[in-house]
Structures are given as C-alpha cells and as structure tokens.
Amino acid sequence: MAVAVVLVFTVQGVRGPAEAVLSLPSARPSHLARPNPDGPLSTAPASYLGLYSDGVPDSYAGVTAFTKSTGIKPDVVSYYSGWYEPFKTTFAAAAARQGAIPLVQIDPEGISVASIASGRYDAYLTTYAQDVRAYHHPVILSFGHEMNGYWYSWGYQNTPAAVFVAAWRHIVDVFRAQGARNVTWLWTINIIHKHARVPSPGPWWPGSSYVNWVGVDGYYYNNSNTFANLFGPTIAAVRALTHDPILIAETAILPAANQPAKIADLFAGIKLYDLLGFVWFDSVHVFDWRLSDAGAISVFRQHAQAYQKSAP
C-alpha cells in the first residue's frame, strides 16, 4: 500500500508521530498486583490508558481538558524531555494526585550518544536519578525513543546501534547505583516499515536485564490501517527478542482514517495481542491527532469505559 513518510522534529520539547508510518498474540508473564508506591507496576494486560496532551509538563490543564471532554481519566501521562532538563517533580506530583503515572521520554537531541555511554553526562544523570528516587512513586522512563528510525540525532543514520545500546545500559546502571528502584524502563521503538526504511529493532535491544517494558509507536493514517497490519509485524519481532510486557507508547488516528471504527480496532487490538495498554497522542503535530469529533469522542468514551472497567 502507498505510505506517506512523515518526519517530525522537536518543537519546544514536543515529539510526536515521527514515524515513517506503517506497520500474534503474545505470551504474557504472570500478573503482578497493583503496587505500593515504590514497588513494580502491574503487568496485567489492558491495565493502562495513557495520554499525551499539549502543554505538558508545564501544565496539567490539557490532561484535565481531555478528561472533561471524554469522561476518561488517564492512568499514564506522557511528556518529552530534552537532555539537561530536570525531572519535572511538580508535574509528576500532579499526576500522582490524579492517580496517574508519569512516562518520560528522555531524548538526547544534539548530544553525542557515545559521550553518554562513556560517562561524560553522569553528573546530570545522577541528579536526575536522585530526583526520581526522591519522588517515591512509580515513574516510567524511556531514552532515545524511535531509535530504529532515521529522523532523530540518535537514530541509525547518526548513531550506531551498538553505541545506543551502550548508552542505554550505562543510563540504567547510573540510576540503579543511585537506588532509583521506582523506575520502570521502557524501551520505545517505532513500528517496522521496510519501504519507509524503518528496520526491525533487534540491533538496538539492550537485553532483558536492562528493560522492563517495550514501547511501540505507530499511528493510523488512513482507512486501510488496522491494528494487525500496523503493529502486528513489530510485536512479532519484539517477541523474538523478549517476552517483556508491551505498551503502545504513542498512537492516534486521523479523522480521514475513520476514527470511530479505528478506535474500536485499537481497543480490540490491545486485548487481542495481550498488551499493557496504549498512550493516546492528543495533539496537533504536523496533523491534528486530537479527538474533536463528537462521534469519535462518544466511541472513545464507550470503549474506554468498558476497557477501564475490565482492567485488573
């Protein structure tokens, strides 16, 4: 099928559908109960319905507006953090008060990934780890998302996979050395698309001892997109590497893709493939991904309420 290639670059810390755009039910580890603040997060299927909205992490207003519009309260709230930016404790505290877990995509824009691996930025990472530890609530952290794409400085056109892996492991080691045990490490990849030069993510895999969850980013651009053809091949590739839980870390549906029908497909796909859940990208970024049509909002509300009601 014909596929549009969309490149997205950082705009005031905002990321989004930077993917080149397209893409078996899996085994699942034994379920964990919902944790104490410093314990592990649940890995039960269909546990999470997350959100990225405009204005985060400077404000929680976008999250509140989404809840007002849809009636749905997200339990994961995502934001993108440039290198040298501190952990946003005020935003994280606001999330915790609302019963949500902050998901931070730390992106080394314009930074030498090899220098991260060699320890040049350990002072920054140490301070960040200490701030996360002091938060005393669960935090989901990712580094260099969509590294199997070519559009970011840490992507394969600029950074060898082995260097990325070394940096990832080094970052995790620094956090562990600081006792930041409230971190869930999310290794976030883009959906595979050979025609758009997005390869299988195997070369970037840091190993299960350095990853807790796998994140997958992918978007519905047109009516021919389905959960199976977008995410299925990438899920199969991930399952060849690990049985770690999978979260759809970025997704949304363009109105032209038939939002109501694809919303139903998205919720059904999460359950069919036994995934943790998804993070909805509710923002204008190159395209308008927001839920704004009354019919689409109604369908989203209906499926989300049933989804959250069935969550463990």
Strand content is 15-25%
Secondary-structure element sequence? EHEHEHHEHEEHEHEEEH
General shape: globular
Which structural class matches the secondary elements? Answer: alpha/beta
Q: Helix count?
A: 8
Give me the Rg, rounded.
18 Å
Number of strands: 10
Main CATH class: Alpha Beta
Number of domains: 1
By CATH, the topology is TIM Barrel
Helicity level, as a percent range? 25-40%
Corresponding CATH superfamily: Glycosidases
CATH level-two architecture: Alpha-Beta Barrel
Would you tell me the overall average pLDDT?
90
Low-confidence stretches: 1-13, 19-38
Mind describing the biggest β-sheet? 8 strands, parallel, barrel
Strand order, biggest sheet? 1-2-3-4-5-6-7-8
The N- and C-terminal alpha carbons lie at a distance of 38 Å
Protein described:
With 312 residues, this protein is α/β, with parallel strands linked by helices. The chain has a single domain, classed as Alpha-Beta Barrel (TIM Barrel). The protein is 32% helix and 17% strand. The chain has eight helices and ten strands. The protein has helices spanning 61-70, 89-97, 113-118, 122-135, 161-177, 227-239, 259-272, 294-310; strands spanning 48-53, 76-82, 101-107, 139-143, 183-190, 213-217, 246-251, 277-282, 284-285, 287-288. It has an eight-stranded parallel barrel, surrounded by five helices. A two-stranded antiparallel sheet has the order 9-10. Strand 9 and strand 10 (287-288) form a beta hairpin. Helix 4 (122-135) packs across helix 5 and helix 7 runs parallel beside helix 8. The longest helix is centred in the middle third of the chain and has 17 residues, at 161-177. The radius of gyration is 18 Å and the shape is globular.
